[in-house]
Automatic annotation (TrEMBL):
Domain of life (superkingdom): Bacteria
Family per similarity comment: Belongs to the universal stress protein A family.
Annotated PANTHER family: ADENINE NUCLEOTIDE ALPHA HYDROLASES-LIKE SUPERFAMILY PROTEIN (PTHR31964), USPA DOMAIN-CONTAINING PROTEIN (PTHR31964:SF113)
UspA domain mapped to chain residues: 2-137, 148-287
Name of the protein in its database record: Universal stress protein UspA
InterPro entries named among the record's database cross-references: Rossmann-like_a/b/a_fold (IPR014729), Universal_stress_UspA (IPR006015), UspA (IPR006016)
A Pfam entry, by short name: Usp
Signal peptide: none
């Protein structure tokens, strides 16, 4: 059995992430529940009480607060182990991600890009630091639809989008009743003057470009003999992804990520980070270097 890494704190988002991981792991994977304890914020307290005393107190507190998570996992009868470690959460997660885990499932607050950085988001640096696929689960997701039945694979003509599509197929093979939707979003040239160059005439031209973009991915699904539907839309990618997911009652959105760091992604208007913002549908982020 392979292992799924599930970083947990004490939030409602983490509870949803655990429920998602249990639904996906059932009879296929074991879980590693990982709780990272950040450095104690007050140096004066540490000096007065001593490092060991402070850490012992933090451990006791963590074990007590984690009992509700262990109860949920034990009731589901999915094999698991619990790891508690001191350190910056995203660094602890990245270290454990290298230990033969197939994927990470973690909760996200769904903050906007800059707000997320200001509030020290853990999910953004985790996506940057790890190489394995990352599921992001918000508190508002519908647990009755876990793990997933309808998958939206967003494609843009890039190699990382193709790798994301392949990973989505691979990770969905043992789930019954799966259906796939392929989506490509063409950004109107008016939004980025000069990007498309000579050749743009009207929306029909944009749709033709979109169909050309999506065709290699259709061939990928045809080769695997997997049923799918395709859709080409015009607009802002992150907005159209969220709207399509809602219209089609999608259970999982799959995105390829180019591996840029968080700040670079923010400055360049990364679709991945924009999609995370306020998206209630679970996300699967597949990173390529």
């Amino acid at each position: 059995m392979s292992r799924i890494l599930v970083p947990i704190d004490f939030s409602a988002q983490s509870i949803q992430a655990v429920r998602f991981a249990l639904a996906y792991a059932k009879d296929k994977h074991e879980l590693t529940l990982l709780h990272a304890i950040p450095p104690f914020p007050s140096r004066n307290v540490v000096r007065k009480l001593g490092q060991k005393s402070v850490e012992d107190f933090q451990l006791d507190e963590a074990r007590e607060d984690l009992k509700k998570f262990l109860t949920i996992v034990e009731e589901a009868q999915v094999p698991y182990k619990l790891e508690i470690e001191f350190g910056e959460p995203h660094e602890v997660i990245a270290k454990h991600a290298k230990e033969e885990h197939a994927a990470i499932v973690m909760g996200t607050h769904g903050y906007g890009r800059m707000t997320g950085f200001l509030l020290q988001s853990v999910s953004y640096p985790t996506i940057h630091d790890v190489q394995i696929p990352v599921f992001l689960i918000s508190e508002e997701t519908d647990a009755s639809r876990f793990p997933w039945k309808k998958v939206l694979v967003t494609v843009d003509g890039s190699e990382h989008a193709k790798e994301a599509a392949k990973k989505a197929i691979q990770m969905s093979k043992e789930i019954e009743g799966i259906s796939f939707n392929l989506l490509t979003v063409v950004t109107p040239p008016v939004a980025y003057a000069g990007v498309y160059g000579v050749g743009w005439e009207d929306t029909g031209t944009l749709e033709d470009w979109g169909r050309e973009t999506i065709r290699p991915y259709e061939e990928l699904f045809e080769a695997e003999q997997i049923p799918f539907e395709s859709k080409v839309v015009i607009g802002d990618p992150a907005t159209m992804i969220r709207e399509t997911a809602k219209e089609e009652a999608i259970d999982l959105i799959v995105l390829g990520h180019h591996g840029m760091g968080g700040i670079a992604g923010t400055l360049l208007g990364s679709v991945t980070f924009k999609t995370i913002h306020r998206t209630q549908t679970p996300l699967l982020i597949v990173k390529t270097s």
